[in-house]
Write a structure and sequence with these properties.
heterodimer, A: 152 residues, alpha+beta, 2 domains, three-stranded antiparallel β-sheet, two-stranded parallel sheet, B: 364 residues, Cytochrome-c3 Hydrogenase, chain B, 8 strands, 14% strand
Amino acid sequence: MKINSEKLRETLEKMHREGYKYLVKLTAVDYTDRIEVLYFIRNLDNSKEETVRFDLSTKNPHIPTVLDLYLAADWYERELSEMFGIKIDGRNAKRLLLEKWDGKDPPMRKSFIWSKPYEGMKDAVKWAEKYKDDKDKKDGGQNVIRIGKPLK
Amino acid sequence: MGETKINIGPVHPSTHGVLRLVVTLDGDTIRKVEPHIGFLHRGVEKLVETRMYMQSPSYMEKIDYVAPLSYDELYVATIEAALGIAVKERAQYVRLIQLELQRIASHLLWLGTAINDIGQLFSVFMWCFKDRDIVLSLLEEATGGRMFYVNQRLGGLNRDMAPGFDKHAYKALDYLEKRIGEYQEYLESNPIFMERMKKIGVMSKEEAISLGVTGPTLRGSGVEFDVRENYPYYVYEKLNFNTQFENSGDCFARYRVRINEMKESIRLVREALHIIPEGDAIGMPIRLIGPQPKEKEVMVRRELPRGEGMMYMVTEGQRPYRLSIRAPSFINTAILQHLPKGHRLQDLFPILASVDTVMADVDR
């Protein structure tokens, strides 16, 4: 079921009244020009499933929280906001759920840069840059990057 | 007396992995539990996007190292749905047998570790490990692998069951059925076990549905839902399958559901071995470039030992564009914020054990 992003609360409230009380999964797909958000909901009485989906713009995306309808949305929303950089209106988690990264560049977006050297590499790169034009240039013009401190 | 905050984990024998719990206590009573997860986050969903379809199954097995075969099968089934490949009839039976054996192995490991957590019942831990080894030997005979299998191929399997497997299986299943009955009898007549499991961590039916818990944790709260019955796959429809559930919603109910599921699995394997058709079960060999996907997006669900697993995949050429995994442990761990409230500190670990989480599955 494709809806408008503004009608999310309205639709889910209606579905919840109809018996779709089980949130199976909340996820998103980044199509580079838009982000599609999907709510898989289920009616456990008759095993009917419905997918509520809508598009968001990639710039400053935000959705309202549905935590009051589905308690299961708690961690799913936090995961979504960390992984896709989608702001959840009505939630302000102080701590990252899947911790141990800076949380600034959303990793599941297609614009995420993979080959960023990690912090510890920066010094090594700087050091290599400094000695680039050193006498170490062997035949073929290849740079030899020395490991460890340079010998004097 | 004011509130006390204590930190449990991330490395603690009873968390079975790297889970950190920050517990706020009022005397001995739990007021708030804050689970910290993410120590094992490997970004599986992102890594899959960089690989061809059939490069990932071995990596999928490591999501849940207690039940690797189930995840392997879930992933390969997703690919089959996306590429529009039908599974051979014999392969459907063999997969079902292996999935149910994997479920027994996983639940036996759970039984041992959970009972170890609640008290000094270490003997059960050793017995369960010994019995789990029998199941692993059966799986080794069937697939060639002991811990990790990578036996699933598109449309079938890498290796069919060896001749004479059914004889070994019947013998092992008879033994296991006897043993599981003995464990149940022993545990349910043990006052320590009963005191620590009954009326602990009670979750009502409405609460369980709203919290979105899954698997034996959901069925322990009186919800009669099992993917194998409600959305049947393979040949579950042909077999006489009954959903196991309990109504009391406490730790004991969740234990009971798992015990009954093991018995049900034994019955299912026997039944499947009895009616398995002759024929070919070998799937396509692994090739990097396979058939073009027929579906733009697919959603596949399976009943994993820990609960309902679901994969939602958007395809693009020879690679997944996006793979979203619903990990049962992730959503089951979230209920630790609600369940232990009002209980005493000693009850935290029976509750944690009863939801059966694997931390690698939580973080993915």
